[in-house]
Amino acid sequence: MLATVALTALALVPMAAAHGGVLAYSIAGTYYKGFAAYNTPTGQSSIQREWDTYNPITDPTSSYLSCNTNGASLGSGQQSATVAAGSSVTAYWNTWPHTIGPVMVYMASCGSSCTTATTSSLNWFKIDQAGLISGNLTGGLWGMGELVANNNSWTSKIPSSLAAGQYFIRHELLAIHTSNQPQFYPECAQLIVTGGSGKTPSSNYLVKLPGAYSMSDPGVGIDIYSNEGETNYTIPGPAVWSG
Length: 243
Ligand SMILES: *[C@@H]1O[C@H](CO)[C@@H](O)[C@H](O)[C@H]1NC(C)=O
Ligand SMILES: *[C@@H]1O[C@H](CO)[C@@H](O)[C@H](O)[C@H]1NC(C)=O
Ligand SMILES: *[C@@H]1O[C@H](CO)[C@@H](O)[C@H](O)[C@H]1NC(C)=O
Ligand SMILES: [Cu+2]
Fold this sequence. Notes:
Layout: H1 2-18, E1 22-27, E2 30-33, E3 81-84, E4 88-93, E5 103-111, E6 124-130, E7 132-134, E8 141-142, H2 143-149, E9 153-157, E10 165-175, E11 183-194
Parallel strand pairs: 3-11
Antiparallel strand pairs: 1-2, 1-4, 4-9, 5-6, 5-10, 7-8, 10-11
The structure holds 2-acetamido-2-deoxy-beta-D-glucopyranose (3 copies) and copper (II) ion.
Organism: Artomyces pyxidatus
Protein name: Glycoside hydrolase family 61 protein B
Keywords: Hydrolase
């Protein structure tokens, strides 16, 4: 019995270690711990929405695509980071095991409250992305490789003209090392943006998640090994809105 329990625990660890997500943030210089996946939300307090597993989402139309598994709010434990438009946001992952695929960062306005918002109903816009930076599909430098080289972190700027208000920031890694089997790793955190100059993205920059991606997108249902000499990659989703 004890042996069975020990083996089960051992079997789970490598799976968790093989993937992961955003564990913490530095927002305009202040450090915030994220939600602790694999733990009950009861008693947790975080700016990050709940997420329950280090495993990827493998269906681009999954209902969890916006903010990961059970991305419900933490009730009274749910917090938001107050930050001026134009500030930098750094997300920190666990030791990230994948280097092939793009990094994408989105935001969405929540209206009056992010804590009560249903993330799949929001209008998301992209503020940052990096796909194939140089070289070819199998041997080149990807956004995700740059993330790994940079202390498993990614820094983006909140557009300085963005209208003040309550927003999500959503970091997404799309690992494409397995042929025709995308792996999406999204995590969301709540922000209260101050300052700015009242600008908002027009409708052609706004998408629903799920809704923006499909397996037929060239950058989603992709077999990099059958096209390894190619040096172009089409990052899925809308164009970046820079304000
Ligand atoms: C590297 O990332 C960790 C969080 O994973 C952070 O605590 C540390 O400050 C970072 N180091 C540097 C040099 O930024
Ligand atoms: C892809 O890039 C790698 C690294 O530069 C190189 O070794 C390899 O030959 C390239 N593959 C093709 C098919 O061009
Ligand atoms: C690379 O460009 C070609 C020609 O435009 C296109 O057909 C192909 O889908 C692109 N590859 C990727 C991975 O986006
Ligand atoms: Cu993985």
